[in-house]
Design goal:
The complex is a heterodimer of chains A (199) and B (98). Chain A is mainly α and 199 residues long. Chain A contains six helices and no strands. In chain A, helix 4 packs antiparallel against helix 5. Chain B has 98 residues and is mainly alpha-helical. Chain B is 65% helix and 0% strand. Chain B has three helices and no strands. The longest helix of chain B has 43 residues. Classes of the chains: A mainly alpha (199), B mainly alpha (98).
Chain lengths: 199, 98
């Protein structure tokens, strides 16, 4: 049996070899699989909403407020810009890690603005009488948009953790990409939900 | 036994032909209806069928392209540089032994 140090060296060599042949880091692959499951989850919700909407004789249902299309369009643009800011941060990270700090912060702040704006919008709609139990529109609106907001909050948390690590110089490329994949999912999903639910 | 099976299959076929409403009992067989709900059923069925195919197809294509890119990069890194002409020192005559 080889001595302990030789075995450890062998294991390290094997680990480094397997890492060098990895096409996608494990964390990124895991996040991609998770995102694929989430896409199917939202696809199911969108399908159910589409059928309920098509079967309704009047849409939006009677005595229900109109959804704020124009104000949400501004919010949509803010979220899309946050995706662009994160893409800039990723590009900057490969050249100079410190240069990625500001665009990452901008992406997080725009994401935070999106969530807060959505909260304010919900508050106004509840005061106008649109609740979870008031109609099928209310049920689906709060379910779909609420789940997206929950995902946005989790994604902002991931970005904040990545930013904190970046500040301390511990952030690896794969960690940034993992957080970015989830944020791009949140950003990319929103225009679809906006088109289906609001328009 | 096979006669019983044949008769049973014939009975099922006959029932299907005689009672087309039964054959249209599932949610996606309502093609005879021409309303918004039916269109929504058809569209969402297509949407839910195509989405995973596009996702996994896209992921597979991305992996393949990434693999090809890495192979090209490795090929460039491994290509041997052309061998240089061997440097030969001018032959000097050995000193004569006296």
């Amino acid at each position: 049996m080889p001595p302990r140090s030789a075995r450890t060296a062998g294991r390290l060599r094997l680990a480094s070899e397997s890492r060098s042949t990895q096409l996608v880091p494990s964390s990124v692959l895991g996040m991609l699989i998770f995102v694929a499951a989430e896409v199917m989850f939202f696809a199911g919700l969108i399908s159910a909403f589409t059928i309920i909407r098509a079967e309704a004789p009047i849409w939006p249902p009677a005595n229900q407020p109109r959804l704020p299309i124009e104000r949400t369009a501004i919010n949509t643009i803010a979220l899309l810009f946050s995706g662009v800011a994160l893409a800039i941060a990723q590009r900057a990270f490969t050249r100079d890690r410190r240069a990625a700090r500001t665009p990452m912060l901008v992406a997080m702040l725009l994401g935070g603005f999106f969530v807060l704006f959505q909260g304010a919008e919900w508050w106004a709609l509840i005061r106008q009488g649109l609740t979870l139990t008031s109609s099928s529109l209310g049920s689906f609106f709060y379910l779909i948009v609420g789940l997206h907001a929950l995902h946005a909050v989790i994604a902002i948390g991931l970005l904040a953790a990545a930013w904190w690590r970046l500040q301390r110089g511990w952030l690896a490329q794969s960690q940034l990409v993992t957080a970015a994949v989830f944020w791009y999912f949140v950003v990319g999903l929103w225009p679809v939900l906006y088109g289906v639910v609001y328009l | 036994m096979s006669l019983v099976r044949t008769l049973f299959a014939a009975l099922v076929c006959f029932t299907g032909l005689a009672a087309p409403r039964l054959a249209l009992a599932c949610s996606v067989c309502s093609a005879y209806r021409e309303d918004a709900a039916n269109r929504a059923f058809v569209l969402t069925t297509i949407f839910l069928s195509v989405t995973p195919l596009l996702m996994f197809g896209g992921f597979g294509a991305w992996l393949y392209l990434r693999h090809k890119k890495r192979e090209r990069a490795l090929a460039v890194a491994v290509t041997p540089t052309p061998a240089r002409e061997p440097v030969t020192a001018p032959r000097r005559s050995l000193p004569e032994l006296s």
